[in-house]
Design goal:
Bound molecules: adenosine-5'-triphosphate
Radius of gyration: 23 Å
Number of helices: 11
Pfam families: D123
Shape: globular
InterPro entries: CDC123
Largest sheet: 5 strands, mixed
Helix content: 25-40%
Strand order of the largest sheet: 7-6-4-5-8
Protein name: D123-domain-containing protein
Number of domains: 2
Distance between the termini: 68 Å
Order of helices and strands: HHEHHHEHHEEEHEEHEHH
Structural class: alpha+beta
Family: Belongs to the CDC123 family.
Strand content: 5-15%
């Protein structure tokens, strides 16, 4: 009993999860966010393709097939019990992706209704994360990501939400103009009961410039202004409990909206915990000042000791992908071990 009271006070009711899908909020805030194109409806076999095991590219999507480094003999021997992969081809979607790439000056950032494949960013050059310059890049990221599989599963999407009508849920492919984003200027902002209560730095790196109190003041003022003028007063935007992500301009005087998320356990509270946010919310509510109260701003204030890259758990060497095609996990593990052993043997040959 007690725990349900606690969670009730930690999280307000999630009235509409669909308010947070891209096609719901983008038309309302198009003037304050990155230019984007929504491709929907998507054919059933596209959804099937995303759900299928293995990372492979549909025919005609401009990609040299991921080639196995095994010899032909080994290849045919190891694959003889494996069901051939179903082949897919999406000429219409390929065409739309190419048009968007041209429209957005050479590159797009892909996502589905809610999630981007940011856990698969390591697939493309890390210096320009998630920068897709061909349909094949888009497919490869979506197929390699665990995060986007959330959007493919209506049970997960509607979990804990009051708008339980899964029949209206349709998958969408979103292509946003790609920018080289300075992560030190990204923020996540928490709104509960119609009050802006918290602002967190978006990643976990230490940025010395944030130590200065005038910088903190400026960031808080910019976020509060954008929220009051563009979001809180926007009648078409109904949720009273939500999280939004922003990118500050270089001079910290303005900001662009990046994304909206539900105020719910599925949204990472970053440098806050939801317990802390709950306390801030209740104290602001008691103060009776509502949205005029300054939000709490949190940033990393000591240099980090960890150099581990984000989403490391989801990384595997590129060569491994070619071995994964159509193999079950045990077969894949065996082949990958052989490849690793070959590598060790070659290394010791070179050393001797
Ligand atoms: N158009 C873009 N061009 C380049 N990078 C982008 C673009 N949009 C977002 N990003 C980067 O990708 C990150 C994730 O984007 P976004 O918030 O849309 O994905 P998400 O999967 O919804 O993330 P989360 O689950 O954390 O909300 C952003 O923090 C930003 O660094």
């Amino acid at each position: 009993m007690e725990s349900s009271n606690v969670s009730q006070s930690l999280f307000p009711e999630l009235r509409s999860v669909l308010a947070f899908q891209f096609s719901s909020w983008y038309p309302i805030f198009a003037g304050h966010t990155i230019k984007s194109t929504i491709i929907r409806p998507l054919p059933d076999d596209f959804v099937q393709y995303l759900n299928d095991d293995g990372v492979y590219i549909p025919d005609g999507a401009d990609q040299v097939p991921l080639s196995s480094s095994l010899s032909d003999d080994e290849d045919s021997e190891s694959n003889e019990d494996v069901e051939p992969l179903r082949s897919y081809s999406f000429p219409e979607i390929d065409k739309r992706i190419r048009e968007c790439i041209a429209l957005y000056e050479g590159a797009v950032f892909p996502k589905l209704n809610f999630s981007s494949p940011r856990d698969a960013a390591w697939m493309l050059p890390i210096s320009s994360p998630l920068k897709c310059t061909s349909p094949a890049d888009v497919y490869m990221l979506l197929k390699s990501s665990d995060f986007v599989s959330f959007d493919l599963n209506p049970e997960l999407v509607f979990e804990g939400a009051a708008d339980g009508d899964k029949t209206v849920y349709a998958l969408e492919l979103v292509l946003r103009k790609w920018y080289s984003i300075d992560r030190s200027r990204e923020l996540r902002c928490f709104v509960r009961g119609g009050m802006l209560i918290g602002i967190s730095q978006r990643d976990s790196n230490y940025y010395p410039y944030m130590e200065a109190s005038d910088v903190q003041y400026k960031i808080t003022a910019t976020v509060t202004k954008l929220w009051r003028e563009c979001i809180a007063t926007e009648e078409r935007w109904r949720p009273k409990d939500y999280v939004f992500d922003l990118l500050l301009t270089r001079d910290l005087a303005r900001a662009h909206i990046i994304d909206f998320n539900p105020y719910a356990p599925r949204t990472d509270a970053l440098l806050f915990t939801y317990e802390e946010l709950g306390k801030i919310f209740h104290s602001k509510k008691l103060s009776g000042e509502h949205s005029q109260v300054e939000p709490v701003f949190k940033f990393v204030n000591t240099p980090s000791t960890s150099a581990a890259p984000e989403h490391q758990h989801n990384m595997m060497p590129f060569e491994a992908l070619s071995l994964s095609n159509g193999n079950d996990i045990e077969e894949f593990a065996r082949l990958w071990q052989e490849e690793l052993k070959k590598g060790v043997d070659n290394d010791s040959d070179e050393e001797s």
